[in-house]
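Record 5-formyltetrahydrofolate cyclo-ligase, 198 aa.
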Amino acid sequence: MSTASEKQTLRQQMRSARRALSPHQQRQNARLLCRSVESQLWFQQAKSIALYLPNDGEIDTGPLIQLCWLSGKKVFLPRLHPTAKHRLIFVPYTAQSKMRLNCYQIPEPMIQGLKPRPAWALSLVMFPLVAFDQKGGRLGMGGGYYDRTFSFKHLPKGMNSTKLIGLAHDIQKVDSLPTESWDIPLQGIATDKDYYPC
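=>
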C-alpha cells in the first residue's frame, strides 16, 4: 500500500470516528481540552494566538477562544490567502467579527479594515488535524495549507519562535504516521484526555 493510499484510508477512518461523537461528547471534549491547554505554560505566556472554528467533527475551540478573550489574548483565525495558492493568512477575530464562508464552506473572518498577521508573527498556533502520533506527526485534510504556510519552520535560522500545537479528540491518536519531507512537525498535541509534548 502506498503512503498516499495509507493516508487516505486513515483520513476516512478518523473523520468518521470524530463525526460519530455525540453533541454531548463534543461539548465535554471541548471543555476538557480547554482545561488541558489552560494549564500549559506555553499557553499562559502566549499573547497572539491563532485558533480555528471547528468543521467536520473537529474538536470545538469555542471554550478556548472564550478563555483567550477573557485572558486578554489576541485571537486570530486562518483565512485562505487571497493570492498565494494553498497558503493561509491570519485575521484578528472578536465576537463582533464579520464572517463569510470560503470555498470549503468553512467560516473565515472578513479582512476589511483589519490587518492580517503573517504566520511567523504569531506566538502560538493551535490547529486541527485528522490524526496524530506522539512524535509530532500530523495528518491533515490533504490540502497542504498548514505545511506550506509554516514551511519557514524548516529553515535552519528561520523565524522559529511560533509554537505549533495540534488540537484533537484523543480518539484520533495513532501509533505512527507516514511522513513526507515537507510535513511540518508539531511541538505538541493537546486533546480532551492529555497533552503530548513532542
